[in-house]
From TrEMBL:
Binds 1 dipyrromethane group covalently. Residues 3-199 form the Porphobilinogen deaminase N-terminal domain. Belongs to the HMBS family. Monomer. The porphobilinogen subunits are added to the dipyrromethane group. The modification S-(dipyrrolylmethanemethyl)cysteine is found at residue 236. Residues 220-288 form the Porphobilinogen deaminase C-terminal domain. It catalyses: 4 porphobilinogen + H2O = hydroxymethylbilane + 4 NH4(+). It comes from the Bacteria. It comes from Jiulongibacter sediminis. This is Porphobilinogen deaminase. Tetrapolymerization of the monopyrrole PBG into the hydroxymethylbilane pre-uroporphyrinogen in several discrete steps. Keywords: Porphyrin biosynthesis, Transferase. One of its GO terms (biological process) is protoporphyrinogen IX biosynthetic process.
Length: 307
């Protein structure tokens, strides 16, 4: 059996594709990897919130899933929009890596120091303003290697990045501080790799892929987080966060919230339930009822007028 993986061409994307390839090979499959360039890879001179949040890194991959040119598309779970077209499904979430954001620098500094950080994530910008208002922020895009190059060239002193990507790309030695998830709560899906397929994928292939790649506890947590994000209807340009944990008896706890763009308002809720989809919906409703609705509306207006 040969399984064709479609992936973006960045080093992080390729790491993920090789990671899935290895798991599939261990399960006895043969694997081909096909690199696909997406809009998000091609447009580097505009911030992501201006290109439009939906599918900038996934559209071209989904075209090839639909046509059957590839069997699966491999993504960072975080980058995958919360609501997929009916023709597609996520059939596996790999075991989650540490979820924290980390401070990365070639200089000796920590979150109490005064410095300039480069980031293009609206969540990180808003949370920095909320919790670390003394830190200066500049917009910075590009893949991990590009950003580290820009940092070392002096465009900024530090970067705020997901531990998962930094670790996978071998920049562990530049981690200066790990931010606490209770406060600097990560984006929905951070740290896990998602395998997407067409709903028409061959059943035997589908079974093998799930068996080889899916981590059930990660899966239920990510289903809860993604259900939350879908209910909020927030793409990656809205500073929402969500992190789900499980207890022994499969009880789930979802911590989630929203931050205003200026960091002045932050609302955080936490809910316990055993059904992931419902947990996401309940948490989103609670957040909206407790003031999230107003913040979301304000953010939408600000983003629209910035375009
Ligand atoms: N948006 C880019 C992106 N997508 C996934 C990761 C890191 C790996 C992961 O969280 O799975 C990153 C880089 C970052 O946010 O620092």
């Amino acid at each position: 059996m040969t399984i064709t993986i479609g992936t973006r061409g960045s080093k992080l994307a390729l790491w993920q594709a090789y990671y899935i390839e290895e798991k599939l090979k261990e399960a006895g499959a043969q694997v081909e990897i096909k690199i696909i360039h997406t809009k998000g890879d091609k447009i580097l001179d505009r911030s992501l919130s201006k290109i439009g949040s939906k599918g900038v890194f996934t559209e071209e991959l989904e075209d090839q899933l639909r046509s059957g040119e590839i069997d699966i598309a491999v993504h960072s779970a975080k980058d995958l929009q919360s609501s997929l077209d009916e023709d597609f499904e996520i059939i596996a979430f790999t075991e989650r890596e540490e979820v924290n954001d980390v401070l990365v620098s070639h200089k000796e500094l920590n979150m109490e120091s005064s410095f300039t950080v480069g980031t293009s994530s609206t969540r990180r910008v808003a949370m920095l303003k909320a919790f670390y208002p003394h830190i200066n922020i500049v917009d910075m895009r590009g893949n991990l290697q590009t950003r580290i190059g820009k940092m070392e060239a002096g465009d900024c002193d530090a970067l705020l990045l997901a531990y998962a990507g930094v670790h996978r790309m071998g920049y562990h030695d530049k981690i200066k501080e790990k931010l606490p998830v209770k406060r600097f709560t990560p984006a929905v899906g951070q740290g896990s790799v998602a395998v997407e397929s067409s709903v028409n994928l061959d059943k035997e292939k589908r079974e093998l892929i799930i068996h080889a790649c899916n981590h059930p506890l990660t899966e239920i947590c990510l289903r809860a987080e993604r259900s939350f994000l879908k209910e909020i209807n927030g793409g990656c340009s809205i500073p929402v966060f969500g992190y789900c944990n499980w207890f022994d008896d499969y009880l789930l706890e979802l911590n989630a919230g929203i931050v205003s763009l200026d960091g002045k308002k932050i609302i955080r809720v936490s809910t316990l339930l055993d059904d992931p989809e419902q947990l996401g919906i309940d948490t989103a409703k609670k957040l909206m009822d407790q003031g999230g609705k107003e913040i979301l509306k304000e953010i939408r207006n600000q983003l629209n007028s910035a375009l």
